[in-house]
Amino acid sequence: MYKNVEVHMKKLLAITCLMLFCNLAHSAQCPDLLKFVKRKLNSQETVNMCDAYAGKTVLFVNTASYCGFTPQFKGLEDLYSKYKDQGLMVLGFPSHDFNQEDKDEGKTAELCELTYGVEFPMFEAMPVRGRDADPLYKMLAKKSGTTVKWNFYKYLMDKNGNLVNTYASSTKPTDPQFISTIEDTLRR
After folding, report:
1. Residues 22, 30, 67, 112: which is the catalytic one?
2. Based on the structure, what is the number of domains in the chain?
3. Which of 18, 46, 86, 159 makes a 20 to 30 Å CA pair with 54?
4. Global pTM value
């Protein structure tokens, strides 16, 4: 009887070690910029960014509902729709840092979905600059050497987790040079 317990314990230990090794290997493959769990906009559902976006080209965008750049939602959605099958993810992060975001996530979600037809992932509102910035945005600032200047500031990460470039709010998702950089990054 003790022999069976010992055999089962050894099997259990081996399985546990294998699972730990797999988790460590997965964690090592995950880019730093994706080692976060974020809550979806107007939802309790969370997304493990590493599981969802590792190996993808990611465009991080801080958004706002009541900004002169808010119409960029349409261009971002068009960009996402056109290139998502090639590995592009557009991730939107509403922020009230510039006093142009609704404090009601339901209203933000409604504007995104109904007014602009946004289907790319949108996440909970968060601070994106300064001492109180969300850790993701602190890391984006550190890796790029620049912080968010205004709403619709963009950070582009390639599929290997390297930060490719940052883009001012005035860079429209329809700008030919911006699209060219997206296409080049997707081909890498």
Report:
1. 67
2. 2
3. 18
4. 0.84
